[in-house]
Every structure is written in C-alpha cells, then in structure tokens.
Design brief:
single chain, 140 residues, mainly alpha, 3 strands, 50% helix, rod-shaped, disordered C terminus
Length: 140
C-alpha cells in the first residue's frame, strides 16, 4: 500500500544540480574577467605613480643649485629615486604593482617609465606623447 507523501517545502535533487551547474558557469566566466580587471588596476596605479614621480622630479630639478644628476646616464634609477627621497620629495621608495615591473629613469626622454622586462609600458592606452595619440587618431 503506497504511502501518502506530504508535500514538503524544499528543493529536489535535480533543482540543486541545476543551481550548482549555473553557479559553476557564472564562476567560470567571472574569474578570468576579475583577474583582467586586477591587472588593469595595477597598470593604472603604476601609470599614476609614474606621473607623480615625473612631477616631483621636475620640482626637485627646479631647486637644484648643482649639477643635475638626472642628466647623467651613469646614475642608476635607484640612486635617482633615493635623491628624491632624501630631498623630501617622496616619502619612500616605490615599487610597481605590475608583475616584473621596474621604475626606470629614461635620460633620453627625461621621464620616469615603467618597464616590464625590457618593454616600456605606455602611460595611457593611447600612447605616451602627443605624437603617439595624434598618429593613432589619424590611422583609425
């Protein structure tokens, strides 16, 4: 004789499996995007740091009464950063947020840059200089 099962509130096994599958698909989509957003945020932070370092370097150089160490190709970037710190223009040494990134003083361009390996990172998505940006706008 069959028992009369009372209707109980809750989920069936099939409903639970469907929910788990949907959550798995959403996670598979969201995780790669989240890592991309994190990498973009780190690159933006580095670009902002470079702009700040360029500004404080300009202030430091405007107050010099001796030879400018930023014009000397033999002075290492770390030593130049220490001069900014000792001069009171920066509170401490900064390190890039991007993996394998290095802040380097480019004597030829007279600016701080972020390098990943031997490749410089652009200061903006459009490029570094007015020429880069205007050339990009013309080609598109």
């Amino acid at each position: 004789m069959p028992r009369n099962w009372k209707k109980r509130p809750g989920f069936t096994l099939i409903e639970l499996i469907v929910i788990v599958v949907v959550l798995g698909v959403l996670t598979a989509i969201a995780v790669p995007n989240a890592t991309l957003w994190i990498d973009q945020a780190k690159a933006t932070a580095d670009s902002t740091t470079v702009r700040t370092m360029n500004s404080v370097t300009t202030l430091y150089r405007s107050g010099l009464k001796t030879a400018d160490p930023f014009d000397d190709k033999s002075v290492a970037s770390d030593a130049l950063m220490q001069k900014l710190i000792l001069g009171g223009y920066m509170s401490g040494s900064v390190t890039p947020q991007t993996r394998d990134g290095v802040f380097t003083w480019d004597v030829d361009q007279q600016t701080w840059r972020v390098y990943i390996g031997d490749k410089p990172v652009a200061l903006s998505p459009l490029g570094d200089t007015f020429t880069d940006i205007s050339t990009l706008a013309v080609t598109e």
